[in-house]
Amino acid sequence: MEDTLRLNELFQILKKNLRMILGTTIVGIVIAAITTFFLLTPKYDSSAQMIVQNKQAENGNGNLQNDINGNVLMVNTYKDMIKGDIVIDAVQKNLQEEYQYTYSNKELKEMIEVEQTQNSQMFQIIATSSEPRKAATIANVTATTFQEIAEEVLEVTKVTITSKGVIPTESVFPNNLLNLLIGALLGVIVGVVGAFISELLDDTVKDRRFVSENLDFPILGAVSEIDPDELIANRGTMTPEQGNVKRTLATRTVPNRHRERL
């Protein structure tokens, strides 16, 4: 029974501060929207997919399953090579000469990622940029550059670009819906916390239980607040003396902390 009363008290606190909670929720959504649509720079990515075939697979020597497993394991080597200076420096030079894109070695390494589908010989070079066209260009230039260098440096006979990067139409960052939901959630949390803090800081007597349970004082009686609307509705049934008394009481504003005089 006591737990039920406490839950009811919590509900009443939230209900009393509902406007504040709704207000902080709206503010959270507005802040998230401003940050998402006006402050954050959208990012776009484009990917070029590739596959590498080694000499043994080309000549038909060895076990086919072993060759496939070997190629899968070699993808990690290709990843390191693509992110290494030998490929990045060449990509940097090609972008400068062919497209007049100027990037440092460090910037290109941060923009380029290599991902492999699990247990697959296929892997993809993903380039991310704030400009969609540049993302596609960097992905394709990196793929063709790796294709040329891999055949010279590694013991492979064929590097195939199975699909080229295309100009993306939708950004991958930021996630608009997710950011708005996070803003709303944070707004609700701030509102709820504020409601409970406000309740904890309120040291006024709110009900008769506080007097009997906390102060251990006997309750002699209570004077309830008079509703002005009820006075107006019942005005016709009152005697002149009652009307004068209740009109006088109705004109007095009773503070919340004195709504019950015990």
Describe this structure in words.
- The structure is a single chain.
- The protein has helices at 2-16, 18-39, 55-59, 64-82, 85-99, 105-111, 132-153, 176-201, 208-214, 228-233, 240-250; strands at 44-54, 112-116, 122-129, 156-163.
- The two termini are 25 Å apart.
- The chain has 3 domains: 2-40 and 175-201, no CATH class; 44-163, EIF_2_alpha (Alpha-Beta Plaits, 2-Layer Sandwich); 209-258, no CATH class.
- Helix content is 59%, strand content 12%.
- It is an alpha+beta fold and 262 residues long.
Arithmetic mean pLDDT: 81
Our count of domains comes out at 3
Unreliable stretches: 249-262
CATH architectural group of the largest domain: 2-Layer Sandwich
**Apparent shape:** elongated
Measured by DSSP, the beta-strand proportion falls in 5-15%
The profile of the biggest β sheet is:
4 strands, antiparallel
Radius of gyration from the CA trace? 36 Å
Total strands: 4
Please count the helical segments. 11
- Helices and strands, in order, run as HHEHHHHEEHEHHHH
Show the helix and strand layout.
Elements: H1 2-16, H2 18-39, E1 44-54, H3 55-59, H4 64-82, H5 85-99, H6 105-111, E2 112-116, E3 122-129, H7 132-153, E4 156-163, H8 176-201, H9 208-214, H10 228-233, H11 240-250
Antiparallel strand pairs: 1-3, 1-4, 2-3
Helix pairs in contact: 2-8, 5-7
Q: Could you list some keywords that capture this structure?
A:
262 residues; alpha+beta; Alpha-Beta Plaits; 3 domains; four-stranded antiparallel β-sheet; 4 strands; 59% helix; elongated; disordered C terminus
